[in-house]
Automatic annotation (TrEMBL):
Keywords: Iron, Metal-binding, Oxidoreductase. Belongs to the cytochrome P450 family. It holds the Pfam family p450. It comes from Zea mays (Maize). The keyword Oxidoreductase applies. This is Cytochrome P450 86B1. The gene is LOC100217282. PANTHER family: CYTOCHROME P450. One of its GO terms (molecular function) is oxidoreductase activity, acting on paired donors, with incorporation or reduction of molecular oxygen.
């Protein structure tokens, strides 16, 4: 057999030589194509095998990062949900070597209850999360843990449940909806123009939350939908901070030191946010009579309330603390409310039966007003608290929208050192 192969090879070589070496010239291209086909087959088999066993393909050095980068280009949350579903609700993400992108991702209700309720104190946000968001959120409640978190939550909770704060929230919403939102929608309808509802709702909630947090109206929802520098800077800072979570820590820290990429955008945006916040704080202190917490006007916005308060040592809160409180509250109230409303109206558009039942419920309340002898002007209707409590189907529809599309779909937790040590020693977590 060896002899036959040699003879065939000799004949082929002779034929190649007789044709002017054309076949020999094609051999490098053929070999390159064979290598590419072999590599492609290997990649396909490797991807399918690891997707079946680990949820995502894992590569040397870069880990699962290529799959993550491809996933976030589309509908990131649907992609994550698909991976979790295939893995039974929990999978381990392995990022590039020597980075912090190593984590366990879970959507199992039992795990969530364990993390967020049963053993809440054992799973703080942790130093990685705090270091990542500190430039934007400072020492506010979003990045705080332990006693700092409890103290801020206690103070904010007392204020949120006060009658003055509820009245401020209701009055600002009525003013914004009737004075700005409805005219904007009516103007677009009259002109036959399309409306980016998500953008309009984001402007609505941003104006509302700034009025509640700072006592200042930025005017994002004014006619013409102007671009407000503070709102733009806040949006850019939030986006740049989010990008840190999908960037290796060493990489974004190097970018911050060099002032390039999204870290350059973050630095410029934070300068604008801080300038606005500290200017409002300075003017508010002047309105309240400097450091005299009992002086000045009576108001229920968060900045005024916390400016009047004292810390555990009996001293006024610093400007930095006030800035962090208000920026955290803006972040908490702006995106969550607007995202929830955007998904809600999107779902109503796809489910006309649910929309009809909500309208029927509202019309029933208006009919009850007419029966009581009240004059109802539909453009000026403001529902009373007791009437809102009767809107059971609307409440159910909003709750279902939040279940299907939660405003905060991802939460970051770490394991505290003492709890990790106890798990290793006892084998019980």
């Amino acid at each position: 057999m060896d002899t036959a192969v040699s003879q065939n090879a000799t004949v082929a070589a002779a034929a190649g030589a007789g044709s002017g070496g054309g076949l020999a010239g094609l051999l490098p291209e053929v070999q390159t194509l064979e290598v590419l086909v072999a590599v492609s087959i290997f990649v396909a088999i490797h991807s399918l095998r690891q997707r079946r066993t680990q949820g995502l393909p894992t590569w040397p050095v870069v880990g699962m990062l290529p799959s993550l980068l491809l996933g976030i280009r589309g509908d990131m949350y649907e992609w994550i949900t698909g991976v979790l579903k295939a893995r039974g609700g929990t999978f381990t993400f392995r990022g590039p070597w020597f980075t912090n992108l190593q984590c366990v991702v879970t959507a199992d209700p039992r795990n969530l209850e364990h993390l967020l309720k049963t053993r809440f104190g054992s799973f703080p946000k942790g130093p990685y999360f705090r270091d990542t968001v500190r430039d934007l959120l400072g020492d506010g409640i979003f990045g705080a843990d332990d006693e700092a978190w409890r103290r801020q939550r206690r103070a904010a909770s007392l204020e949120f449940h006060s009658a003055e704060f509820r009245a401020l929230t209701a009055s600002s919403l009525v003013e914004l909806v009737h004075g700005r939102l409805l005219p904007v929608l009516a103007g677009a309808e009259a002109a036959g123009a399309a409306v980016d509802l998500q953008d309009v709702l984001l402007r609505l909630t941003f104006d509302n939350v700034c009025m509640i947090a700072f006592g200042v109206d930025p005017g994002c929802l004014r006619p013409g939908l102007p671009e407000i520098p503070f709102a733009r800077a806040f949006e850019d800072a939030t986006e740049a901070t989010t990008l840190r979570f999908v960037t290796p820590t060493a990489a974004w820290r190097a970018m911050r030191a060099l002032g390039v990429g999204h870290e350059r955008v973050l630095r410029r945006s934070l300068a604008a946010v801080d300038e606005f916040a500290y200017d409002v704080i300075r003017r508010r202190r002047e309105e309240l009579g400097g450091d005299d917490a009992g002086a000045g006007r009576r108001s229920s916005d968060l900045l005024t309330v916390f400016t009047r308060m004292r810390d555990e040592d009996g001293r006024p809160y610093t400007d930095k603390f006030l800035r962090d409180i208000c920026v955290n509250f803006i972040l908490a109230g702006r995106d969550t409310s607007s995202v929830a409303l955007a998904w809600f109206f999107w779902l109503l558009r796809r489910n006309p039966g649910a929309e009809a039942r909500i309208l029927e419920e509202i019309e029933g309340i208006l009919a009850a007003r007419k029966e009581a002898g009240e004059v109802v002007v539909e453009e000026e209707v403001v529902f009373r608290p007791e009437e809102v409590k009767r809107m059971e189907y609307l409440h159910a529809a909003l709750s279902e929208a939040l279940r299907l599309y939660p405003s905060v779909p991802v939460d970051h937790k770490e394991v505290c050192t003492s709890w990790r040590t106890r798990c290793f020693r006892t084998g019980r977590c």
